Amino acid sequence: MALLFLFWCTLFCFAVDSFSISSLVSKELYHSIFLHKDDNACPAKDFYTYESFIKASKCFPRFGNTGSLATRKREIAAFLAQISHETTGGWATAPDGPFAWGLCFKEEVSPQSEYCDSTNKQWPCYPGKSYKGRGPIQLSWNYNYGPAGKALGFDGLKNPDSVSNNSLIAFKTAFWFWMTENKPKPSCHSVMVGRYVPTKEDLAANRTAGFGLVTNIINGGLECGIPTDGRVADRIGFFQRYASTFNVDTGPNLDCQYQKPY
Ligand SMILES: *[C@@H]1O[C@H](CO)[C@@H](O)[C@H](O)[C@H]1NC(C)=O
Ligand SMILES: *[C@@H]1O[C@H](CO)[C@@H](O)[C@H](O)[C@H]1NC(C)=O
């Protein structure tokens, strides 16, 4: 089965070569956004290459390719902002500011646990493996490594390390997380391209579209429904910097302090 998926993905990635987000994110732009990712101070030095970013994006042809030009740029800016916060090496007085230090880390530094939900029988943890945050989106938990690996053609439960030692797989997991609906959560993609349709429960929970809802999808349990904390502000800071780089507005609902988490 895994082989079949791998085959499918390989074929698919070649098939969609006609569209590339490199038309909106040039190598120069990528390096101006992630100004310090290859510094000696960054543990992910030389890992997150532009080539892997572009190649991985081709497995998800709707990413950055849905809606108007402004919508496409806003989605890309939001994605780059969220992966920046997840991997940031920045601090308040950092050179070039706190929002110039995305993609500095490839794995979680002091994980609190192995992130194994042993009640999940569909994606059982492999003995001795840790499902800590890895890669641009800091994929974590067995119930994310399992389905990500299945979709992308690697054994996420047995070989979670693949996400931190193969930059193509690393970027693919980030795009996979962004593009995949995981009910009751919508996909981050659908939210940023205006295709999200809130349910009655969503409306009662103030979960209306915007960058803040994407934060809710990614880590709302810890960051949303409370007065805006540093993590949410950091995500917004990256987004504002990148939106301005792409010369596009951020849209409404940047934070999630009045949203109930899922
Ligand atoms: C990368 O991860 C795979 C899967 O866990 C592992 O087999 C391999 O030894 C790792 N390679 C390096 C260079 O760490
Ligand atoms: C929805 O937002 C309003 C403020 O705009 C707030 O008073 C209310 O408590 C929020 N509802 C929920 C369920 O968080």
TrEMBL record:
Q: Where is the signal peptide?
A: 1-18
GO biological process: one example = carbohydrate metabolic process
Residues annotated as domain Glycoside hydrolase family 19 catalytic: 42-64, 169-179
- Extract the PROSITE patterns matched here: CHITINASE_19_1, CHITINASE_19_2
Pfam families xref list: Glyco_hydro_19
Q: Give this protein's Gene Ontology molecular function annotations.
A: chitinase activity
For this UniProt record, the keywords arranged alphabetically read as follows: Carbohydrate metabolism, Chitin degradation, Disulfide bond, Plant defense, Polysaccharide degradation, Signal
The catalytic site is made up of: 86 (proton donor)
The record lists its disulfide bonds as 42-104, 116-125, 224-256
Gene3D superfamilies per record: 1.10.530.10, Endochitinase, domain 2
The job of this chain, per UniProt, is described as: Defense against chitin-containing fungal pathogens.
What is the name listed in the Swiss-Prot or TrEMBL entry for this protein? Glycoside hydrolase family 19 catalytic domain-containing protein
